[in-house]
């Protein structure tokens, strides 16, 4: 299929890299006297960035991986998500080919958390907890950390890891610093050019009797990207009872314009050596304008490839504008008082998503003159259809769905910590305790209108014909598409109608909800250094109060829903670090975490119509995980490290989608789709990582930088259900959703004092995306393996001015989802490569 690298190849890459690390270190020692005479150039670029990240990783009490901005305050990738994916154990979910959501050690994005300067960032999307990281302006980011083991003084709300974003501080530079850049990008699929401008500035000032004790840092970023993608999908509508027969499929053309605006203003004040205060602010706006034209083919009877039969055809349009905003404000400080250290922080974050009104679906039905149809190619279905299908005169308007939606998610928190240093029989120790209060509220308000029966409203057949709405034939890389639909013409048509007559109360009220999640936490921990050992032991308590309000619809009758729950967790933890040698250390950790289900899974609303039901489950238990980590790290000169880590997670109450038809109160139902808690799941694996700059080699080889990492993991879980036909209890063993067995990165770079080059590849093996049902393995959806290859180049025209070139997705890697077996399409999408060139001026 579409696998560009086998798992065996990635294993070989990593093993070879580890062997090279050992050999290179021996060579470095053996030839130190000779190589020492070679002129060395200190480069502000890839190696410096890697070295800073490794120093932070080395000194951390947690097991973590770090990405550090380089000397010009730029991340090494296009956005935050794509920079993080280079780290061991990290993969990303992409939207329209762009990296957005982060998975850690095979656990989905909703099971991890994102913090900015230590405060939680809520999600703007109504159903999710995951936060898209492509909205953060890279110029404001100083470092990114993926913390994989949590100490008791940290929030326990991540199973895989916490992505912590540290923003730029004026104290990161000695004096005045500023940078500005312009960039133009080009997408091969859309043939569109996309602009970007950004900049950052910081400086330090003297207040009172202090010298350079007050710092201000600011950053702004704006870019607009126009692109498109081509898609064909069945949605898993296969009938496997007699071979493989298809019921329906769609072809889709996406035309998208995304505009991002981000900025931040940070203040730091250090009135004396014992006191520091800070204020961190962030604003991000993400505007997404999407037009989706589609053609659909629905067969009267399931058809095998190449067969032709009676077919219903449609042409559809979806056109909407969504705006996501994230605001974050964090005020905190630290005061040292002899052996005591007092620190605290107050944070407010707000995320929102607003759809002021858009076409959720405009459907044109094809008439009988189009004739029979079929398909060929089970992986990328193409239609077998007559020429009449491409004539707009053969389609007429049937229905228009219009929606408006607003989602708001706020997080308010206050944290206070107190630590005291002391000695235990001559060993340095510290006791630390504190608490945190957080209040989170999530609201979703959806309003829907359904316009139909246009003939009864006095519209003529000519007025409803697609020729009146024809946008012209659309380009489609996967075959012939035919006429597109004009959104403006649709809006003109329904704009003259009284919208109150078409209000869809059921869809509107069933999707509205208000959820409240209050968490009170406290902890106690102790750190002690005994010779070459460091131990951290402690306990964290988290008490949660949860409330969900919404509306259910039972055969047209509305019912108010209000669910309230309290639950408590005691979460012990133990960390140990042993200095095996000067540059080698061993780490071990036992930690416990608790993660609440997504808001979509907890949704209180339901829709019941006759013998079919669909509903959320506000009574779901939170996911609990007991985690064990053991590993070794060895550091080698500049930007050099080799490491290996084992991890094991015992997860209780994992959540999966389930069909309850045939059981309990749903015994007479044919469908009853909801969510359930599984008993337990296991996740275990091995992380290997290596990076090194070969500065001990003679020129030009002393500019080579090599990095490789691979994560090999396995998972096991079991789900239960009921056979709707027999009532028998069923059980099935599965992999955890979103868990890839193999994730790998390979990076080859070279740099000197003028030029910096980097070629990188990211591999992610196939994984289970969504369960179809306990007794329907054939319809489970899987995402196929992907390998993305990117290239970047930077050249310094002067000390302060450099030009850059980036090429992403050089292999034109598609996104392919299949049903049960990789031969059978669920979704296939192509994006094309993207190229950009930019100019950056920096003063520091």
Automatic annotation (TrEMBL):
Primary location: membrane
Domain TonB-dependent receptor plug, residue spans: 58-162
Family annotation (InterPro entries): Beta-barrel_TonB, Beta-barrel_TonB_sf, Plug_dom, Plug_dom_sf, TonB-dep_rcpt-like, TonB_rcpt_bac
Protein's UniProt keywords contain Membrane: yes
Domain of life: Bacteria
CDD domains named in the record: ligand_gated_channel
Keywords: Cell outer membrane, Membrane, Receptor, Signal, TonB box, Transmembrane, Transmembrane beta strand, Transport
Subcellular location: Cell outer membrane
Membrane topology: Multi-pass membrane protein
Keyword RNA-binding set for record: no
Signal peptide: 1-29
Annotated region described as Disordered, given as residue ranges: 292-319
Protein name stated in the entry: TonB-dependent receptor
């Amino acid at each position: 299929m579409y696998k560009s690298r086998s798992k065996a190849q990635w294993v070989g890459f990593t093993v070879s890299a580890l062997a090279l690390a050992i050999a290179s270190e021996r060579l470095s020692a053996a030839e130190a006297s000779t190589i020492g005479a070679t002129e060395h150039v200190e480069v502000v670029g890839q190696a410096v960035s890697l070295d800073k990240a490794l120093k932070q990783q080395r000194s951390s009490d947690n097991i973590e991986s770090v990405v550090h901005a380089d000397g010009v305050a730029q991340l090494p990738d296009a956005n935050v998500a794509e920079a993080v994916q280079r780290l061991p154990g990290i993969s990303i979910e992409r939207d329209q080919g762009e990296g957005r959501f982060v998975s850690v050690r095979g656990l989905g994005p909703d099971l991890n958390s994102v913090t900015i300067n230590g405060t939680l960032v809520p999600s703007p999307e109504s159903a999710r907890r995951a936060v898209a990281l492509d909205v953060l302006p890279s110029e404001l980011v100083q470092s990114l950390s993926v913390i994989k083991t949590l100490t008791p003084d940290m929030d326990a709300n991540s199973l895989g890891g916490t992505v912590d974003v540290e923003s730029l501080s004026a104290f990161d530079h000695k004096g005045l610093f500023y940078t500005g850049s312009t960039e133009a990008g080009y997408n091969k699929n859309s043939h569109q050019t996309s602009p970007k401008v950004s900049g950052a500035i910081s400086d330090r000032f003297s207040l009172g009797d202090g010298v350079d004790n007050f710092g201000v840092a600011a950053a702004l970023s704006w870019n607009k990207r126009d692109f498109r993608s081509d898609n064909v999908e069945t949605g898993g509508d296969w009938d496997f009872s007699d071979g493989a027969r298809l019921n329906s499929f769609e072809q889709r053309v996406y035309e998208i314009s995304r505009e991002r605006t981000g900025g931040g203003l940070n203040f730091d004040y250090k009135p004396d050596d014992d006191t520091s205060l800070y204020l961190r602010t962030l604003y991000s706006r993400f505007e997404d304008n999407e037009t989706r034209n589609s053609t659909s083919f629905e067969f009267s009877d399931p058809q095998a490839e190449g067969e032709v039969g009676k077919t219903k055809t449609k042409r559809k349009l979806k056109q909407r504008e969504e705006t996501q905003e994230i605001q974050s404000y964090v005020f905190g400080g630290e005061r040292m008082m002899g052996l005591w250290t007092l620190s605290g922080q107050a944070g407010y974050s707000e995320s929102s998503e607003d759809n002021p009104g858009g076409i959720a679906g405009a459907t044109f039905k094809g008439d009988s003159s189009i004739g029979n149809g079929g398909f060929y190619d089970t992986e990328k279905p193409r239609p077998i259809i007559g020429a009449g299908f491409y004539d707009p005169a053969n389609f007429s308007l049937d229905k228009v769905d219009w929606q408006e939606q607003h989602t708001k998610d706020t997080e308010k928190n206050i944290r206070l910590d107190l630590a005291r240093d002391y000695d235990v029989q001559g060993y340095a120790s510290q006791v630390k305790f504190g608490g945190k209060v957080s209040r989170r509220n999530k609201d979703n308000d959806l309003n829907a209108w359904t316009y139909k029966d246009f003939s009864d409203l006095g519209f003529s057949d000519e007025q409803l014909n697609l020729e009146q709405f024809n946008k012209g034939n659309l380009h489609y890389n996967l075959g012939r598409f035919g006429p597109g639909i004009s959104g403006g013409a649709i809006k003109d048509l329904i704009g003259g109608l009284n919208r109150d007559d078409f209000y869809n109360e059921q869809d509107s009220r069933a999707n509205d909800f208000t959820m409240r999640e209050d968490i009170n936490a406290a902890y106690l921990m102790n750190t002690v250094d005994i010779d070459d050992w460091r131990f951290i032991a402690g306990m964290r308590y988290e008490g949660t109060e949860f409330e969900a309000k919404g509306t259910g619809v039972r055969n047209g009758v509305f019912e108010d829903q209000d669910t309230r729950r309290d639950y408590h967790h005691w979460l012990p933890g133990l960390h140990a670090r042993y200095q095996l040698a000067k540059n080698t250390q061993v780490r071990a950790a036992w930690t416990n975490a608790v993660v609440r289900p997504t808001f979509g899974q907890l949704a209180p609303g339901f829709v019941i119509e006759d013998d079919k039901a669909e509903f959320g489950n506000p009574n779901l238990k939170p996911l609990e995980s007991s985690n064990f980590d053991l590993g070794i790290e060895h550091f080698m000169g500049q930007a050099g490290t080799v490491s290996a880590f084992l991890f094991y997670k015992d997860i209780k109450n994992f959540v999966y989608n389930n069909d309850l038809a045939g059981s309990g109160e749903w015994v007479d139902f044919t469908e009853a789709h909801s969510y359930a808690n599984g008993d337990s799941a296991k996740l275990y694996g091995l992380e290997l990582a290596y990076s090194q700059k070969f500065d001990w080699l003679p020129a030009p080889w002393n500019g080579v930088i090599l990095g490789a990492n691979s994560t090999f993991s396995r998972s096991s879980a079991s789900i239960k259900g009921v056979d709707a036909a027999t009532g028998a209890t069923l059980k099935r063993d599965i992999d955890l959703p979103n868990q890839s067995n193999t994730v790998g990165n390979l990076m080859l770079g070279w740099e000197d004092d003028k030029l910096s080059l980097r070629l990188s590849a990211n591999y992610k093996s196939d994984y289970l995306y969504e369960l179809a049902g306990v007794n329907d393995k054939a319809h489970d959806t899987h995402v196929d393996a992907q390998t993305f290859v990117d290239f970047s180049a930077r050249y310094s025209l002067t000390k302060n001015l450099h030009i850059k070139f980036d090429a992403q997705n050089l292999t034109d890697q598609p996104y392919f989802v299949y049903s049960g077996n990789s031969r059978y399409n669920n979704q296939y999408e192509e994006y094309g490569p993207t190229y950009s060139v930019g100019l950056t001026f920096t003063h520091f």
